[in-house]
């Protein structure tokens, strides 16, 4: 079983990759059969190929991420974070709360992102 | 379907009841067949009677709650909050992240609380 420390490190690594990585490098943090439901209520992306495609949409943007709060319970984590994305002269800021589950090797087995369009701030 | 506003109000009402209510009044916010998994990974309390028993443990304490952040996605919410509990001269502070789902009438259909013992601060 992944420890609290393993899970926290895996979340920090994920946010680092979301800020600096590619669709492929972010998807590599996920288990082969993982699911990504973003936002919660949408049809989940299933499997690493679909997950890579999902994240590849952000490759052409300039991004930064900050971890605001994290709570770990067993092999699961809930965390509040900020993503700032610059696209075409506009800055989009959103601070979702994500829930992730992890395998024994600390790979991400599922991600669910809680946010709604009202939470997006464009400046 | 409950609106974002309905869900946010239901979370605020829940935190108000956790601060000032009884096991019965808190359980009344839940659907009859709801589940409470607190912390995530523990055996869930199933049904309103079990939920009432779970919350009645806090009736003899002096408590306050504060909502720190909430994100709503459809009929679900994730929220970060603070609970301060005074028992026998000690003050216990914990700031979990909870995930709730809601019915169309904004009753709580499930609650999962993300925290670990390390997150409890005793002063």
UniProtKB/TrEMBL annotation, chains A, B:
<dbReference type="InterPro" id="IPR037401">
    <property type="entry name" value="SnoaL-like"/>
</dbReference>
<protein>
    <submittedName>
        <fullName>Nuclear transport factor 2 family protein</fullName>
    </submittedName>
</protein>
<dbReference type="InterPro" id="IPR032710">
    <property type="entry name" value="NTF2-like_dom_sf"/>
</dbReference>
<feature type="domain" description="SnoaL-like">
    <location>
        <begin position="11"/>
        <end position="110"/>
    </location>
</feature>
<dbReference type="Pfam" id="PF12680">
    <property type="entry name" value="SnoaL_2"/>
</dbReference>
């Amino acid at each position: 079983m992944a420890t609290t420390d393993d899970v926290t490190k895996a979340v920090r690594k994920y946010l680092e990759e979301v800020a600096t990585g590619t669709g492929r490098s972010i998807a590599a943090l996920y288990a082969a059969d993982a699911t990504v439901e973003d936002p919660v209520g949408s049809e989940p992306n299933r499997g690493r190929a679909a997950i890579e495609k999902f994240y590849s949409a952000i490759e052409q943007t300039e991004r930064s991420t900050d971890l605001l709060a994290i709570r770990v319970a067993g092999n699961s984590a809930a965390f509040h974070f900020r993503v700032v994305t610059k696209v075409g002269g506009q800055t989009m800021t959103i601070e979702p709360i994500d829930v992730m589950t992890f395998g024994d090797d600390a790979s991400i087995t599922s991600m669910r992102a809680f946010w709604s369009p009202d939470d997006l701030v464009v400046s």
